[in-house]
Amino acid sequence: MSRLRVAVLVSGRGSNMAALIDAAAEPAFPAEIVAVISNRPNAGALAVAARAGIATVVVDHKAYADRATFDAALDAALRDVEPDLVCLAGFMRILTDGFIAGWAGRLINIHPALLPSFKGLDTHARALAAGVKLHGCTVHVVTPEMDSGPIIAQAAVPVLEGDDEDALAARVLAAEHLLYVRALKLWAQGRVRLDGDRVKVDAGDDAHATALIWP
């Protein structure tokens, strides 16, 4: 059986990308990472991917006059590598509705909060300010409304007394690395199904396939 072809979009160091690459290095994993594309030429993720023998592409957003022309170039770069699925992993660009429509149902993202809470940026600082006792991360399908697409999987972590933003961020990031791999595996196994504005998952014998409590 052929493995799902996955392209990963990155902007920074790419720790979530690295977790996906490590998982896909196992022959039994049902997906393969075929390309890593960055909008920043100096993104640390590019070197990580190259060391793993994965093709890398730079589509520098600064070289384009507006968001639409950048997204057109990004779309062309993706179609050159023919992925079945595109994973956003710290990709710090807001995509146009047209781009998202072109990849509808084949574009997923990981967000560092338990959606629908704390959409957007600075999620850890906002969680601390709100006094929540649980924080976490969410893998979701990308839709035109930011951080609002159907939820595939979530992981929760405790917010501890004395936590600062860095401590909480580190705890969430460790959960992200596990959750994104789990969600990609479910998708690649054909166990994820879009049903309107919700995701249904065939969990099989794993009742916690889409929910993770960390640690």
UniProtKB/TrEMBL annotation:
Stored InterPro entries: Formyl_transf_N, Formyl_transf_N_sf, GART
EC number of this enzyme: 2.1.2.2
Enzyme class: transferase
Active site residues according to the UniProt entry: 111
Annotated site residues (Raises pKa of active site His) in this chain: 147
Reaction(s) catalysed by this chain's protein: N(1)-(5-phospho-beta-D-ribosyl)glycinamide + (6R)-10-formyltetrahydrofolate = N(2)-formyl-N(1)-(5-phospho-beta-D-ribosyl)glycinamide + (6S)-5,6,7,8-tetrahydrofolate + H(+)
Biological pathway: Purine metabolism; IMP biosynthesis via de novo pathway; N(2)-formyl-N(1)-(5-phospho-D-ribosyl)glycinamide from N(1)-(5-phospho-D-ribosyl)glycinamide (10-formyl THF route): step 1/1
Keywords: Purine biosynthesis, Transferase
GO biological process, one term: 'de novo' IMP biosynthetic process
Molecular function GO terms recorded: phosphoribosylglycinamide formyltransferase activity
Ranges for domain Formyl transferase N-terminal: 5-184
Entry keyword annotation includes Transferase: yes
List of residues binding (6R)-10-formyltetrahydrofolate: 67, 92-95, 109
Function: Catalyzes the transfer of a formyl group from 10-formyltetrahydrofolate to 5-phospho-ribosyl-glycinamide (GAR), producing 5-phospho-ribosyl-N-formylglycinamide (FGAR) and tetrahydrofolate.
Family stated for the protein in its record: Belongs to the GART family.
Family matches, as HAMAP family: PurN (MF_01930)
Name the UniProt record assigns to this protein: Phosphoribosylglycinamide formyltransferase
Organism whose genome encodes this protein: Methylopila capsulata
